[in-house]
């Protein structure tokens, strides 16, 4: 009889043969969807060209990184701590980039971004950063546990 999940003594559900909490896989998928939203959100809001490209590049990269981690976990590999740490840093950049590159009010005064995009980037960026950092942290704890027990 084949089971897709087992319970360990701590009560966490682990995907069979992966050693990863099942939640990490779904959180990675959720972060990937946030990245996709961040990439396409400038098409919904009126925005400056600089913010359009920033969102497309950074949001698309977050989408790919988190999607790659989801793929890894689904195929029996451990969480890529480096990939999810990079996704967290990029998401933090997206949250603060409005002020760093002048997306809200450019220095020339000509480029004005929609306030909706500004708050969308701040909230979505912080949520994606927090979830990505948690996934990286949990993956590191799992590797430490495996090293300590020799499994």
TrEMBL record:
Q: Does the keyword Membrane apply?
A: yes
The record, for Pfam families, names: SPW
May I ask which residue range the UniProt record assigns to the signal sequence? none
- InterPro entries listed in its UniProt record: SPW
Q: What is the scientific name of the source organism?
A: Natrinema zhouii
- Give all residue intervals belonging to the SPW repeat-containing integral membrane domain: 26-133
Any idea what this protein is called? SPW repeat protein
This protein's record includes keyword GTP-binding: no
Give the source's domain of life in one word.
Archaea
Give the stretches traversing the membrane. Answer: 26-45, 51-71, 83-106, 118-137
- Keywords in alphabetical order, please: Membrane, Transmembrane, Transmembrane helix
According to the UniProt entry, which residue ranges have a biased composition of type Acidic residues?
1-10
Q: Where is this region: Disordered?
A: 1-21
């Amino acid at each position: 009889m084949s089971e897709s999940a087992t319970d360990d003594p701590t009560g966490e559900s682990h995907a069979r043969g992966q050693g990863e909490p099942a939640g990490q896989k779904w959180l990675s998928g959720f972060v990937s969807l946030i990245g996709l939203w961040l990439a396409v959100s400038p098409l919904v809001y009126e925005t400056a060209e600089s913010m359009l490209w920033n969102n497309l590049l950074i949001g698309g990269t977050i989408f790919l990184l988190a999607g790659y981690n989801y793929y890894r976990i689904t195929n029996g590999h451990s969480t890529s701590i480096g990939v999810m740490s990079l996704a967290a840093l990029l998401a933090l950049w997206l949250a603060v980039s409005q002020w760093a590159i002048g997306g809200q009010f450019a220095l020339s005064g000509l480029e004005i971004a929609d306030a909706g995009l500004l708050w969308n980037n701040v909230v979505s960026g912080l949520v994606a950063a927090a979830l990505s950092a948690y996934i990286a942290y949990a993956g590191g704890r799992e590797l430490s546990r495996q090293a300590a027990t020799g499994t």
